[in-house]
Amino acid sequence: MFDLPAFLHTAVALSVSFVLGAVIGLERQYRQRTAGLRTNTLVAVGAAAFVDLGVRLSGPDGSVRVIAYVVSGIGFLGAGVIMKDGGQVRGLNTAATLWSTAAVGAFSGAGLPGEAILVALFVLAGNTLLRPLVEFVDRRPLNPDTTEALYRMHVICRPEHVSAARDLLADELEHHHYPIRDIETLSESDEHVELAALLVPTSADPQELDMISDHIARSPDVISATWSVSTTN
Fold first, then answer.
1. Transmembrane region positions (predicted)?
2. Any idea what the Cα angle at residue 12 is, between residues 10 and 13, rounded to 5°?
């Protein structure tokens, strides 16, 4: 039987989630992120629809169960936008935005449009107002004494010398008391292969690393050797 008040409640919930999801998605689309306008809008609308359906069918208890499933389901969706690019992990902020957009939809579907607007404002503030602060911190010179950092020793060699270069890399670092957490292949082609040894310590002596890389680079099995440091996120 058609229930006009319930139908209007659903229409309002979906409309609010649509508008707020689109506002969040518009900011993401402007910055050319993986999950943009349509994705964030659909996440908000979908979350609102499921929560509203839970309320309609089972009351508050049903909505609580649906919200739990929405939270876990969005987690799987967010995992799909997280990518590992060499030594960097990308997409964490996009995944977090999707998760927060689902919260906007859940509030809207539960009949709390004011709270949905508040969450949307905080999501937008996190993606916009905090950006200058993030850029300021990122531009500061890296201080290994106060910053937890990841040190990597990079080696470029020919494909037929990968095994010898890997052994040389491990032997040299362990000889200088730099235990290795892992040796990974960053890039590979028919002509060159780049290996990177991830060091266990979070601090190291730059001059000593320069000496180690220079020594490794003298090997006939190695084209070049260098090292890098990056902050952990």
1. 6-25, 37-57, 63-83
2. 65
pLDDT at residue 233 in the model: 46
**DSSP-derived secondary structure for the chain:** ---HHHHHHHHHHHHHHHHHHHHHHHHHHHTT-SS-HHHHHHHHHHHHHHHHHHHHHHHHHHHHHHHHHHHHHHHHHHHTT-EEETTEEE-HHHHHHHHHHHHHHHHHHTT-HHHHHHHHHHHHHHHHTTHHHHHHHHHSPP-TTTS-EEEEEEEEE-GGGHHHHHHHHHHHHHHTT--EEEEEEEEE-SS-EEEEEEES-S---HHHHHHHHHHHHTSTT-SEEEEEEEE--
The residues with which 185 forms a beta bridge, in sequence order, are: 195
What is the C-alpha to C-alpha distance for residues 188 and 56, in angstroms, rounded to an integer? 55
Q: Where are the domains of the chain?
A: 4-138, 149-231
**149-231: which CATH topology?**
Alpha-Beta Plaits (3.30.70)
Residue 133 has pLDDT above 90, yes or no: no
Q: pLDDT digit string (tens) for 74-107?
A: 877 777 777 755 555 678 888 889 999 999 999 9
What's the pTM value of the predicted model, to 2 decimals?
0.60
Other CB atoms closer than 10 Å to residue 190's CB: what's the count? 7
Cα–Cα distance, 183 to 174 (Å, whole number): 13
Nearest alpha-carbon partner for 220 in 158, 170, 171 = 158
